[in-house]
Design a protein that fits this description.
8-stranded mixed sheet; 34% helix; Rossmann fold; 432 residues; alpha/beta; 16 helices; 2 domains
């Protein structure tokens, strides 16, 4: 109150429009030389406000009629309707952010904004890239680039049009998606990025919205993209894709006939070791084997654990889910793996499995189960799904070992592939 009481009436009236005073760090452009500023964040993270305020900062001068840095701005969204309703007339759009003496006028017939100082912003649709052929600009605001259906073509046309002034710049506000145009842009040395999750702007969001989306999507791969604002990539030739994994998600598991815990132990147990993959899955086995359906229930993997640490974690999760069996790969540890598990619980139902084929060869029939719609995922499997989307026909494209995927593969082999093959072909004893 002392601060406000010390301001003049004019200063109090102007304070709501001084964005540098109110902005969060990710809503302010980085210093230095750059051509493109990408504001990448989750839904509701304040990206639109950042873009609208950046446009204001470019076109406004010190006084209402003074020229700003830019005179001709391009406003580009997926459609012209979205530009108008979100970027211009939205609650965080340009008109809502502008002070009365600097507020531009919307000229609907010409599809443009006109400021008191003569600056102009024209509206363009990414669906019509050719509309950007001809005009020229000294600045641009691009919204939701990652969802443009003709993204690369529209982006290229905008770059040719951004040619006025000494240093034309552009602001891109988007929730990330695994699309080529965004990945290419992020890799350019002339691009700078600020990032924030949805939670960063929680003070300006409805509590019920946050509670609902966090309960439904937290820990999922979709949540990591839409709420955390992370760019999640599918490796080329991946056995699983983001879209396929989102399609197999369910909210609750049905009645299951068997539950197993599969473990992929690390070779060593020091700080630099790979994680120990621990995955819980169950199966509904009514009907012929080709009708069996599995559900991945939990990824309980632990990082850099000692042998006693990961064994304790695996046994505890088996007890919690009432698992019928604990299955562990023994290629690296041999009988030592069982010994470590027995030290934690001598009576736990245990089976050691030995891999005679490579990781990809074991994973491919499991990936086929997903393609057939025979595997579902509960929420909370984001880290596992990240690894799955990096497992390709040429091997794992991520860092370290695909420990979580290995555990998943062993679980689904144990639940569906091995018993199913044995029932269909009694002489077949193993598919490992």
């Amino acid at each position: 109150m002392e601060f406000l009481d010390g301001l003049s009436r004019e200063a109090v009236l102007g304070l709501p429009y001084l964005f540098d005073f109110w902005a969060m760090e990710h809503q302010l452009p980085p210093e230095g030389e750059w051509r493109t500023w990408v504001v990448m964040g989750g839904r509701g993270a304040g990206k639109t406000r950042a873009g609208a305020e950046w446009v204001r900062a470019q076109v406004e001068g010190a006084r209402p009629l003074d020229p700003g840095r830019c005179r001709r701005i391009a406003l580009v969204g997926e459609t012209q309707d979205q530009v108008r309703e979100v970027m211009i007339f939205g609650e965080s759009g340009i008109l809502a952010c502008s002070p009365p003496d600097r507020r531009p006028v919307w000229e609907a017939g010409r599809k443009r904004l006109l400021w008191p100082n003569g600056a102009v912003a024209q509206v363009f649709s990414a669906h019509e890239p050719e509309g950007l052929r001809g005009p020229q600009f000294d600045g641009a605001w691009v919204d939701e680039l990652a969802k443009w259906k003709r993204g690369e073509e529209a982006w290229d046309m905008l770059q040719f049009a951004l040619r006025l002034g000494e240093d034309p710049r552009q602001c891109v506000t988007t929730t990330p998606k695994n699309v080529a145009v965004l990945k290419t842009l992020l890799a350019l040395p002339s691009t700078v990025v600020t990032h924030a999750p949805t939670q960063a702007n929680r003070a300006n969001l409805a509590r019920s919205f946050l509670d609902e989306v966090m309960a439904r999507y937290a820990g999922t791969r979709l949540g990591r993209q839409e709420l955390e604002g992370l760019l999640l990539e599918d490796a080329e030739g991946a056995l699983w894709t983001t879209a396929a994994l989102e399609a197999c998600r369910i909210e609750a598991a049905p009645k299951l006939d068997r539950v197993v815990v599969a473990v992929d132990p690390p070779v060593t147990g020091h700080r630099g070791s790979d994680s120990c993959g621990i995955v819980v899955a169950g199966v509904h086995t009514q009907g012929p084997p080709q009708n069996w359906r599995a559900v991945v229930l939990e990824d309980a993997s632990v990082s850099a654990a000692s042998p006693a640490g990961w064994a304790k974690a695996a046994v505890e999760v088996a007890r919690r889910w009432g698992a019928e069996r604990l299955v562990a790969e023994v290629n690296q540890g041999g009988e030592l793996v069982e010994s470590v598990v027995r030290q934690v619980d001598p009576l736990v139902p245990y089976r050691g499995v030995h891999a005679s084929r490579g990781k990809v060869a074991r994973a491919e029939p499991v990936a086929a189960l997903y393609e057939q719609g025979r595997v579902s995922h509960l929420p909370g499997l984001g880290a596992l799904e990240d690894q799955m989307c990096l497992m390709t026909q040429k091997g794992f494209q991520g860092k370290g070992s695909p420990d979580r995927v290995d555990a998943l593969v062993w679980a689904l082999h144990e639940l569906i592939l091995v018993p199913g093959a044995a029932r269909l072909h009694p002489k077949v004893r193993t598919l490992r």
